[in-house]
Design brief:
The structure is a homodimer. The first copy, chain A, has a single domain, classed as Jelly Rolls. The first copy, chain A, is about 50% helix and about 25% strand. The longest helix of chain A has 26 residues. The first copy, chain A, starts with a helix and ends with a helix. Chains A and B meet through strand 5, helix 2 and helix 4 of A and strand 5, helix 2 and helix 4 of B. Chain A binds a DNA duplex through helix 8.
DNA sequence: CGTCTATTTGAATGTACTCAAAAGCGGTGG
DNA sequence: CCACCGCTTTTGAGTACATTCAAATAGACG
């Protein structure tokens, strides 16, 4: 990127510090921003009409996170986003992103690749969820995302895997023996 | 698009007719092509090491389909792709796509939006899978994709929902009474 | 028409959930 | 600095959801 391009980018980004458990987006609200995690970690979760909480994604340093359908298509947010620990994020709003696409075509490419990778990850997750047992999925998760295991509670991980915390507890116990 | 752009696009696409049950991509192979469904319908499925078959996605007219990780990152295919009925597809290979990105920047945008939508769909599917019961998921599926219900077998739909055909059968029976 | 595969049905089994209670742990205020 | 409070995790018993296996029936295709 040229210097003037960098300047434009930074003028559109807004740094924000957030405390542990602070909420960036509340389910049902509209969301105008996408977040880049500079430091710390976040999670996105949904609460369905029976009160069941499901973690949809975690985000670590250098990840982007938002409710895409909400951000892109102005739908009400299906998830809330909260910090797992004290974190720093850069926020970029929808109109600024359009501005970037227009002024710096490179960004089309950048986000094309970003979405491409996000899609690939989701496809793999779908495949894993459907074709492996809970036990296999948990140990693969531990293996792939040790940072999340450290930062998230068991309850949150259980809700990411789609099982109850009680059941996840028994999966871990099984490993011991 | 200008006429010369259109000409370039068509020169890179290759039309292909395929019979019912014909396989476009075999799990484990490398895949150099992405397919656009002009007519008919396809499905992508994985067979895991215990022999369990899972349908990862269906594709109707106007959808794009391939194993993305394989296509983009040269990984061995995790899925096979086969036709549910006699179909017509356009195939575009990886290098031709790079050529398109380079010659017609509009295509960066086009595929950025394509991947964006694909990602949003996958996120929604993940959420639905985790937060609804099999019964709810089946009836939502019937409602959202009536064409697939018509074209795919029960067994294939069961494998998309992640349940056995026997169980899906009992879900349907329940509705009757 | 016959064959092969898909679907249905039911019984027995296993996987995961609910509920309740106990134990562990972390943060906060006195 | 420690005692307490609230929340997370563990444990277990009872229940519900989903699978496996086997057999009967129905459908689809050559």
């Amino acid at each position: 990127m040229t210097d003037s391009e960098k300047q434009l980018v930074f003028s559109l980004l807004n740094q924000k510090k957030i405390a542990r458990k602070e909420v960036l987006l509340r389910q049902g609200d509209s969301c105008k921003k996408i977040y880049f995690v500079e430091d710390g970690s976040l999670r996105a979760f949904n609460v369905n009409n029976s009160g069941k909480e499901s973690t949809i994604m975690f985000a670590l340093q250098d990840w982007w996170i938002t409710d895409m359908d909400c951000f892109i298509n102005q739908k009400p947010a299906l998830v809330s986003i909260e910090a797992l620990e004290q974190s720093k994020v850069m926020e970029l709003d929808f109109h600024s992103l359009q501005e970037l696409y227009k002024s710096i075509p490179k960004f089309e490419r950048f986000f094309r690749i970003l979405f491409q990778n996000a899609y690939i990850r989701e496809q793999q997750r779908a495949l894993q969820n459907i074709s492996f047992s809970t036990e296999e999925r948990y140990w693969k998760f531990v293996d792939k995302y040790p940072a999340f295991v450290q930062k998230a509670t068991q309850k949150q991980i259980a809700s990411y895997l789609g099982v109850t915390p009680e059941f996840l507890s028994s999966v871990k116990r099984k490993k011991e023996s």
